[in-house]
Specification:
The structure holds two protein chains of two kinds. By secondary structure, chain A is mainly alpha-helical. Chain A contains 13 helices and two strands, in the order αααββαααααααααα. Chain A has a two-stranded antiparallel ribbon with strand order 1-2. Helices cover 34% and strands 29% of the residues of chain B. Classes of the chains: A mainly alpha, B alpha/beta.
Chain lengths: 247, 319
């Protein structure tokens, strides 16, 4: 367990000592801030964080918000995690240290998750402002934040998998963004087809699973979706790291 | 260990590793005694790095076994890895950390407690002479100092076995000397396995040498023994005080002589005489020379340097 702790500590430190962490944090706050401002300027001031969570309203659907920003930002947080070790060759020392392969992956996942929680924590001043200035319905805000944490964990796990796959950070980031965008837009694609495939595509998409949360609904099937997909990708990352030994 | 009985800390049997259809190493077998400094010698691409990576548990062999202190490197990988300190060839370091932070991280990765890290850190910094660079960011260090940081991380957790892949590559000559001395110091308490393609280095530092070529061990002995064993074909340089040509056929007729090369100088002649295995012809040569009314100015036995042995073993088929 000392190995796991060492990896978590080291990774968190490097998030906070590298410029990447600050730049990503800044862009995250800037982007989410814009959507929060839109929330405030809503023609029907219902004092909620809907725009902040899911973006602009296009009648049938929505686009943007922190859910879209995370898709662009999580891969940049995670791209370094394993790719850099492979590039620098430090993976050789990591894999010959007495730590298990799962400790390496889980350690790096937890570290990036903690950094994400920190970033999400910074956005808490939006609801605080809202509570100070207006009288919002707290339910959807709480459940929205819970959904955001689960959603964020999933984006990180996909980024981590992409990072495990190759030694080029840019490729890792692009691959992760690609997968995430497909999952994000699956929701829109589901309206093109009908019947079974429509439901199927919608169930795969991450957006439809998030939608309930910001409306104040905590549906167990959404919770299970986020947790199990996150587990799946973290598990695959561990397997891929293990397979390095056999190549 | 007070018993003189053989006490092997590393036992490798039938190690074979394929990176595709071609084996990188094939049926490599060796044993390392506790407290020994073993050198792997071989040209580039001979399979040194592959062997080291298998020894350290970085990758499993395609076939064969490695036992570290009686434990299998694949089955008890974690326990084995605890006993090993490893310095890979490229000295991979996290370039954005300070020397102190990096060493602390490596220590905790090896399961050391904070207390023992702090205790060891001072020692290691002193041994590797990194005092002035304690708080420098690793990425800003020169190659030689990075090498020292690499060695520092490898010995930090006081491993029983230290594996170093090309430890003196790419650093300046003064640091090379220092690094060798450092390895010898470490070798007094720990078992050291190192690889190199530089011969004098191996003969200076190591107690035993394995010469590896094209994935196979071609020779194994102490540096001195290797030299003696390969003296089998010797060369004798003889200088005489005459330019008389007649002496050459006489020399060629001595039993055991396989070749004579003549080199004429102004008032004397030098002969390069090659002698077959197991003959000592020095006595016969001097007699022949005197019988032919010449005087013997000098006679010199040329023993092969390790460099020549290495070339001989790795280039000729009749090794």
């Amino acid at each position: 367990m000392r190995g796991l702790r060492a990896i978590i500590t080291k990774e968190i430190l490097s998030f906070f000592t590298s410029p990447t962490g600050y730049i990503v944090g800044m862009i995250f706050l800037l982007g989410t801030g814009i959507f929060f401002t839109i929330d405030l300027g809503n023609p029907f001031p219902e004092a909620s964080l809907t725009r902040f969570f899911v973006g602009l309203d296009f009648g049938q659907t929505t686009f943007g918000g922190v859910t879209l920003i995370l898709i662009l930002i999580a891969p940049i947080l995670t791209m370094r995690l394993i790719s850099e070790e492979q590039k620098l060759g430090t993976i050789e020392l990591l894999l010959t240290s007495p730590v298990r392969d799962w400790e390496i992956i889980i350690g790096k996942f937890i570290a990036s998750f903690i950094f994400l929680l920190f970033m999400i924590g910074l956005t808490l001043y939006y609801p605080i402002l809202l509570f100070l200035l207006a009288d919002p319905d707290p339910g959807p805000i709480y459940s929205g934040y819970l959904g955001l944490i689960l959603y964020g964990a999933l984006t990180l796990s996909i980024g981590l998998l992409a990072s495990t796959l190759n030694s080029n950070q840019i490729v890792s980031a692009v691959v992760a963004m690609g997968i995430l965008l497909i999952l994000y837009f699956a929701d829109y694609a589901s309206t093109v087809v009908t019947g079974f495939w429509s439901t199927f595509i919608q169930e795969i998409g991450i957006k439809s699973h998030f939608d309930d949360f910001h409306k104040g609904i905590i549906d167990s099937h959404d919770v299970v979706y986020f947790i199990s997909i996150t587990f799946l990708f973290v598990f695959l990352s561990i397997r891929i790291l293990e397979s390095r030994r056999w190549r | 260990m007070t018993t003189k009985k053989e006490d092997f800390i590393i036992e490798a049997g039938n190690l074979t590793h394929y990176y595709g259809p071609q084996p990188a190493i094939e049926d490599v077998e060796f044993k390392v005694q506790r407290g020994e400094i073993l050198g792997f010698l071989g040209p580039n691409g001979a399979g040194k790095t592959t062997t080291m990576r298998i020894l350290t548990g970085y990758m499993p062999p395609t076939r064969g076994t490695v036992q570290i202190d009686g434990m299998d490197i694949v089955k008890d990988s974690l326990e084995c890895r605890k006993k090993i300190g490893y310095l890979p060839e490229t000295v991979p370091l996290h370039t954005d950390m300070t020397v102190k932070n990096y060493l602390t991280f490596m220590g905790s990765l090896r399961g050391m407690s904070r207390r023992s890290i702090n205790e060891q850190l001072g020692n290691v910094i002193e041994i590797c002479r990194l005092q002035d660079y304690y708080k420098t960011i690793v990425g800003k260090l020169s190659k030689g100092y990075r090498q020292r940081v690499g060695i520092a991380q490898a010995i930090l957790h006081e491993p029983e076995i230290l594996v170093m892949d090309e430890p003196t590559i790419g650093i300046d000559p003064i640091q090379v000397v220092e690094t060798r001395r450092l390895i010898q110091d470490i070798g007094k308490q720990q078992t050291v396995v190192l690889s190199s393609h530089i011969l004098p280095e191996v003969s200076m530092v190591c107690g035993r040498v394995l010469i590896i070529n094209q994935g196979q061990i071609v020779a194994e002995d102490t540096p001195d023994n290797l030299a003696t064993r390969l003296q089998a074909t010797q060369q004798i340089l003889v200088e005489i005080s005459s330019t008389n040509k007649k002496i050459q056929p006489v020399l060629e007729n001595i039993e055991g002589v396989t070749g004579v090369k003549r080199q004429r100088n102004t008032d004397n002649t030098t002969f390069e005489i090659t002698v077959a295995d197991g003959y000592d012809v020095r006595d016969a040569i001097s007699k022949v020379i005197i019988e032919n009314d010449c005087s013997l100015l000098s006679m010199q036995l040329n023993s092969m340097s390790l460099e020549q042995i290495f070339l001989k073993l790795t280039t000729s088929e009749g090794a």
